[in-house]
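If your schedule permits, I should be very grateful for your opinion on a structural question. The matter concerns a single protein, recorded as an amino acid sequence and a row of backbone structure tokens. Could you please explain, in whatever detail you think fit, how the structure tokens follow from the sequence? I set the record out below, with my sincere thanks for your time.

——
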Amino acid sequence: MAAFLILTFAADGTLITALGNAFGDIADDLDAF
């Protein structure tokens, strides 16, 4: 069970990081204007 929670947390962290990078890219694009 602990391994499942760790894997789930790792997956969530990756998703959050991906979303953060996407928002960062959008912010950079807006700054270009």
